[in-house]
Design a protein that fits this description.
alpha+beta; two-stranded antiparallel sheet; 1 helix; 2 strands; 27% helix; 8% strand; binds zinc ion
C-alpha cells in the first residue's frame, strides 16, 4: 500500500517537472514589455512605467517626455 502511494507521488513529480520544462509556468519565459525607444532596453515594470499622455504608449521614466520616445501623435490633421 505504501509503495503504491510512493509511485503516485513520483508520477506527479514527473508531470510537474515536465510542466516546468515546457515553460508554461516559467515567468522568465514570458515576453516582458519594454520601452519603445530603440536604444533603451528598460523592462517596463509597475514602478518604472509611465504612460505618455500624448500617444498613450507605455514608456520608461527616463523617456516619459514625447520628445524622448517615438511618440505617434493622436491628433493628426486630416
Ligand atoms: Zn526608455
Ligand atoms: Zn508619447
Amino acid at each position: 500500500m505504501s509503495m503504491e502511494r510512493v509511485g503516485v507521488m513520483e508520477e506527479e513529480e514527473v508531470i510537474l517537472e515536465q510542466h516546468v520544462r515546457s515553460g508554461d509556468c516559467n515567468p522568465s519565459n514570458k515576453k516582458k514589455p519594454r520601452c519603445p525607444v530603440k536604444r533603451c532596453k528598460q523592462v517596463l515594470t509597475f514602478s518604472n512605467t509611465t504612460t505618455c499622455k500624448i500617444c498613450t504608449q507605455k514608456v520608461c521614466l527616463s523617456h516619459r517626455f514625447p520628445s524622448d520616445h517615438p511618440a505617434t501623435k493622436l491628433q493628426e490633421p486630416h
